[in-house]
Design goal:
Elements (H helix, E strand, L loop, with lengths): L7 H13 L2 H8 L3 H15 L4 E4 L2 E4 L1 H29 L1 E8 H18 L3 E8 L5 H4 L3 E6 L6 E14 L19 E4 L4 H8 L11 E2 L2 H9 L4 E5 L4 H6 L10 E11 L6 H21 L1
Parallel strand pairs: 3-4, 3-5, 7-8, 7-9
Antiparallel strand pairs: 1-2, 5-10, 6-9, 6-10
């Protein structure tokens, strides 16, 4: 038969008395009488079958058993107090739930999140990544960041970032790509938006080239495939600045094309809560700052 749990009040009384090594000080901390504290400690000693304190003329000394028990209890109570403090702070924060297309999250938002958290400690941001196909109503999101033309029925859309699309490849492919017509001899990795490569090729004057490579559901997967040497991908360059800067991706041609924007979207049937308004204004300010740095 399992033994009953140790009484929490008695453990708390012991921890305080052991920390102060003085019953009077421990009783004052716990807002109980010294007699009540002594009673709790006697209960614990009876339960454990050991003596925990040696009474001295000016305080108490820990027995060997108490010296072994005290650090374990002290750490446990500290951890409980920290957890309660975190829960209390969280309860005071406003939760904002945002769906984010994975490419934007990885390439733009995540590097800037510390700045948002620093300037808005009152908001607890919860991010859920998606591949640009999302139902905000059924998924319980306050808003979603998506890529496209901003023409989504039932949604209020705020533009937050622009980016040019251009071919990108692994360094090993660069020597094969002198002009856009050279793309006819390599694998062109595609997104599920089938018009992207034809539009870029037409602008670059290489209309006869056809894209027949593997189709991916996100630019993150496209970029990963390109970096592995699987082919050439048409990517939103601003979302892959680190990879381009580090040389893991290279841009063989200067031609870029605008295929859409990143938008912060919310249901028109729902009002814009104050935390979402603050997040929107922060996104717009960050975009303006990035644009001014680029110019």
């Amino acid at each position: 038969m399992p033994r009953p749990p140790l009484p929490l009040n008695a453990l708390r009384a012991f921890e305080a008395a052991a920390r102060h090594q003085n019953f009077t000080h421990a009783a004052l901390e716990l807002h109980v009488s010294q007699a009540a504290l002594s009673h709790q400690i006697r209960k614990l000693e009876d339960r454990l079958g050991v003596r925990l304190f040696h009474r001295l003329p000016r305080g108490v000394a820990l027995s060997d058993e108490a010296a072994a028990l005290y650090p374990v209890l002290n750490e446990a109570f500290d951890r409980i107090a920290a957890a309660i403090n975190r829960a209390s702070v969280s309860a005071e924060r406003e939760v904002l739930t945002i769906g984010v297309v994975g490419t934007f999250a990885n390439g733009w938002l995540l590097p800037r999140l510390p700045a948002f958290e620093s300037s808005h400690p009152e908001i607890e941001l919860r991010l859920f990544t998606h591949n640009n196909r999302i139902d905000q109503g059924s998924e319980g999101l306050d808003a979603a960041i998506r890529f496209g033309d901003g023409d989504w029925q039932g949604l209020h859309c705020t533009p937050i970032a622009d980016t040019l699309f251009a071919p990108a490849c692994a360094p090993a492919w660069l020597h094969r790509l002198k002009t856009p017509h050279d793309l006819a001899g390599v694998t062109l990795l595609r997104s599920y938006r089938s018009d992207e490569w034809p539009r870029w090729l037409q602008q670059a004057g290489a209309e006869g080239v056809e894209a027949r490579g593997t189709v991916f559901d996100s630019s993150l997967a496209l970029a990963a495939a390109a970096m592995s040497g699987a082919g050439v991908a048409l990517l939103p360059l601003a979302m892959f600045e680190r990879e381009l800067r580090d040389g893991r991706l290279l841009q063989p041609f200067a031609d870029g094309i605008t295929l859409g924007r990143y938008w912060l979207t919310r249901l028109r049937s729902r009002r814009e809560r104050e935390p979402l308004k603050r997040f929107r204004l922060w996104l717009q300010a960050q975009h303006a700052l990035a644009a001014s740095d680029a110019s």
